[in-house]
Write a structure and sequence with these properties.
heterodimer; A: mainly alpha; MetI-like fold; about 75% helix; flat; B: alpha/beta; Rossmann fold; four-stranded antiparallel sheet
Chain lengths: ~290, ~250
């Protein structure tokens, strides 16, 4: 008896150790690519980073110096337009799916459309917006680029919002309704508020995803070698600039492309962290 | 002040499932009335018909009349108005997880557009005192989240939240079944105090609890109300054989 028990105990310890080991290994495998990419970007790009990189226009080929100031600004403008379109529509759609349209045909259709939209290749999105918005009267523009990115954000924001709202316990909704709070008010002030950390994560995921998109911008924002803040003119964007520089034959431009990629990643991480920080402060303050 | 409740020919369905059949009873004002019976007998459905929470389930349907005070709740008013007059406390404490203690208590008023801060402060304090939670939380009203309290404190917080909108009736659906004995006895003490100001209807699985807190007791079985009488009579000399079988533990 005792021997058998000892054997079994040893087997269990072994199995436990193996499972833990595999979990740790998987975690390392998940984190490794991110760390590797980041380290490689720093290695390749950090040396080209200086103040000029953030403030200067691109230098002509052959000339030293220059920067991506206009592309950084352009990306900022494009992402602002995209978020203004993608976040409200996506959250609104998610609220409809989870709260008001549950079980209806329309909700089914919206959910299906969102999933299909999520799978549409980004180059196709660029072409579609090119066909819809870019006309001889209004050629390539920041607005068109922002719309393309915004549409790409919608399905991610919409579906995560829905999932997060559905995770709010039924008891919390009942508590609000039993206080005589009208349903719409309960949804906005209680359910959405309770789910807001998850909804914000969804928005940030969508934001980070489109921040690095190049393909939808080729036919829409087009790129611009100069400063521009006009919504109706072509505008530079970091991914576009990286794409052009990386394909060029000049070593200077290659180095700048690496630096641009590094800046892009750092800016995405910074933006996501900032929003999370602000949001966590806001949520803790409670209802108001 | 509490008001009486008069239920006539109440029937309720979930889909095709006839969960309440021909319920008739009069619940007296400013008393505690207990509803007992085995699981699935319809007592929770019954209390949910008293504040029209029943109909938040899309497949639910109700017929019959419920008068609360002089108000026919299915004819004369909208569900949101009813629910402000008929508060409810659920089986599991369900404070709003993102809100502070203060905001939890003030939620019913704030979400209905009430903004007078000084009055809110007073109502929050009075409600928390009425639910015997004030002394335990008064120093951290706005700092601590409602979800960080213990289970028993959370349930008293939920009672305070229900009291803050100044209802006439308080429905309690097994309010102590998820709590430890100490918290349970606190809730029971509370029911004793509250029934001087409110009409209380309490669903319970615990027959000793019914006997301790309620003047009147109704026994539900398979969607029907078998017997409704003074608690003393129900527990010492019930008229119906099925009531006797239930309270002596022969089934349920």
């Amino acid at each position: 008896m005792a021997v058998e028990y000892k054997m079994r105990a040893r087997m269990r310890t072994l199995a436990d150790g193996t499972a833990t080991g595999l979990a740790v290994l998987s975690t390392l495998l998940v984190v490794a690519p991110l760390v590797a990419i980041f380290a490689y970007l720093v290695y390749k790009g950090a040396s080209s980073l200086n103040m000029d990189f953030f403030t200067q226009l691109p230098a002509p080929p052959g000339e030293a110096g220059g920067g991506m100031g206009n592309a950084i600004l352009g990306s900022g403008i494009l992402l602002a337009i995209a978020s203004l379109i993608g976040v409200p529509i996506g959250i609104g759609g998610g609220i409809f799916l989870a709260e008001f349209g549950r079980g209806t045909k329309l909700a089914e259709a919206v959910r299906f459309t969102a999933d299909v939209l999520n799978g549409v290749p980004s180059i196709v999105m660029g072409m579609a917006v090119y066909g819809l918005i870019v006309t001889p009267q209004m050629p390539f523009s920041a607005l068109a680029g922002g719309v393309a990115l915004g549409i790409m954000m919608i399905p991610t924001v919409c579906r995560t919002t829905e999932e997060m709202l559905l995770m709010v316990p039924h008891a919390v909704r009942e508590a609000a309704l039993a206080l005589g709070v009208p349903n719409w008010r309960s949804v906005l002030s209680i359910t959405v508020k309770t789910a807001s950390p998850g909804i914000i994560t969804g928005c940030m995921l969508a934001f980070a995803r489109v921040a690095g998109e190049t393909a939808p911008l080729i036919f829409t924002a087009f790129g611009n070698a100069f400063w521009s803040t006009s919504l109706t003119r072509p505008i530079a964007a970091l991914p576009l600039q990286i794409y052009v520089y990386a394909l060029s034959p000049y070593d200077d431009w290659h180095r700048q492309a690496w630096a641009g990629a590094l800046v892009l990643i750092v800016l995405i991480v910074a933006a996501v962290s900032l929003v999370r920080f602000v949001a966590s402060r806001g949520v803790l303050k409670g209802a108001s | 002040m509490g008001v009486g409740i008069e239920v006539t020919n109440l029937n309720a369905w979930y889909g095709t499932n006839h969960t309440l059949q021909d319920i008739n009873l009069n619940i007296p004002a400013n008393h505690a009335t207990a509803l007992i019976g085995p699981s699935g007998c319809g007592k929770s459905t019954f209390v949910r018909c008293l504040n029209r929470m029943h109909e938040t389930n899309p497949i639910a349907r109700v017929t019959g009349t419920v008068r609360i005070g002089d108000l026919d709740i299915y004819e004369d008013a909208k569900p949101v108005e009813i629910r402000r007059r008929v508060g409810m406390v659920f089986q599991r404490p369900n404070p709003f997880p993102t809100m502070s203690i203060y905001d939890n208590v003030a939620a019913g008023l704030k979400l209905n557009g009430y903004t007078n801060r000084r009055a809110l402060d007073e109502i929050v304090e009075r409600s928390l005192k009425n639910s015997a939670l004030w002394d335990e939380v008064k120093d951290e009203l706005k700092k601590k989240s409602g979800a960080s309290l213990s289970g028993g404190q959370q349930q008293r917080l939920c009672i305070a939240r229900a009291l803050a909108v100044d209802p006439e009736v308080l429905l309690m659906d097994e309010p102590a079944s998820a709590l430890d004995p100490v918290s349970t006895s606190k809730i029971e003490d509370l029911i004793f105090q509250l029934k001087t100001q409110y009409t209380i209807v309490i669903v319970t699985h615990n027959m000793q609890q019914a006997a301790r807190v309620a003047e009147k007791t109704g026994f539900f079985l398979n969607g029907r109300m078998v017997e409704f009488d003074s608690t003393h009579k129900i527990f010492t000399n019930p008229s119906d054989k099925r009531t006797e079988d239930y309270i002596t533990g022969r089934f349920g």
